[in-house]
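thought: user wants a sequence for this fold. calling inverse folding tool.
action: design(structure=
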């Protein structure tokens, strides 16, 4: 029996190459609770009632972002009580509290079980989507070998500080809706064809630069990646199952500039789409610990 069990919600994209997207890493030590995604008045359990691909298609047809309802405190409490009978500790990993209420609900549940024989550690990852998925996979793999809870938590927290994300966003609608860009900048950006580069840093999304062309966008994403000395994980993320033209250009550039490693692509999910829309391309990495 694995001593530690990892819990997360479906906003975590497990960051597997798209061709291997059905593979679940060490499922016996991982439980994923489904978010409920409300689109145009209809609510779906993510990855249960609807696939990520179909959900992104629905979101793309809307002028406003979907509503993301993370698992409730009761959902987490019921799961924790069940898992506590089988495991020595539970580590619950969640998206940034600034982007999701998941960690708040999990803490509410964990507090009700404080003092029991199975400690529950609720961790805000400070990231989202593929970044969170990379961290979950890291924790699941670590749980196979690490039996000391404090060391385990310290290593997972350390890994969360080495996850970085950068996205190029074509449409400014959702960025404006979420007040990541102001209405005036959104209008001007749309008129001029400006594409913002949005980073996920310290738990929140922010515009760090703007470009005008697809070539400039690819250049900036390549520059971002080559700044790292060594990468443990690296993915191109996009909202479609088939490699977009820009993503293919990015892969071709990386094959030349970073020939020592591959950069597979994977899909991002509804929780990230709720913030940046369904017309973005990004890179997410886990920097190797030294």
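)
observation: tool returned 290 residues.
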């Amino acid at each position: 029996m694995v001593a530690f069990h990892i819990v997360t919600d479906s906003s975590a994209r497990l960051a597997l190459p798209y061709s291997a997207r059905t593979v679940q890493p060490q499922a016996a030590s991982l439980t994923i609770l489904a978010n409920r995604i409300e689109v145009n008045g209809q609510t779906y359990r993510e990855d249960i009632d609807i696939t990520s691909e179909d959900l992104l298609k629905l979101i793309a047809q809307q002028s406003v972002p979907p509503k993301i309802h993370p698992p409730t405190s009761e959902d987490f409490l019921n799961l924790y009580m069940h898992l506590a009978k089988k495991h020595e500790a539970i580590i619950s990993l969640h998206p940034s509290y600034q982007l999701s209420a998941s960690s708040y609900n999990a803490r509410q549940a964990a507090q009700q079980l404080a003092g029991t024989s199975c400690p529950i550690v609720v961790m805000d990852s400070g990231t989202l989507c593929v970044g969170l998925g990379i961290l979950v996979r890291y924790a699941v793999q670590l749980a196979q070998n690490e039996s000391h809870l404090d060391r385990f938590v310290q290593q997972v927290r350390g890994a969360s500080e080495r996850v970085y994300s950068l996205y190029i966003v074509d449409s400014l609608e959702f960025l404006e809706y979420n007040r990541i860009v102001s209405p005036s900048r959104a209008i001007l950006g749309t008129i001029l064809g400006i594409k913002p580069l949005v980073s996920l840093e310290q738990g929140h999304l922010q515009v760090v630069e703007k470009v005008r062309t697809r070539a400039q966008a690819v250049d900036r994403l390549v520059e971002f990646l080559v700044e790292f000395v060594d990468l443990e994980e690296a993915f191109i993320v996009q909202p479609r199952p088939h490699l977009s033209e820009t993503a293919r250009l990015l892969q071709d550039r990386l094959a030349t500039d970073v020939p020592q490693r591959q950069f597979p692509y994977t899909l991002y999910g509804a929780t990230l789409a709720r913030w940046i829309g369904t017309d973005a391309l990004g890179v997410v990495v886990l920097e190797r610990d030294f």
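thought: summarizing for user.
answer: Here is the designed sequence. The chain has two domains: 4-160, 163-287.
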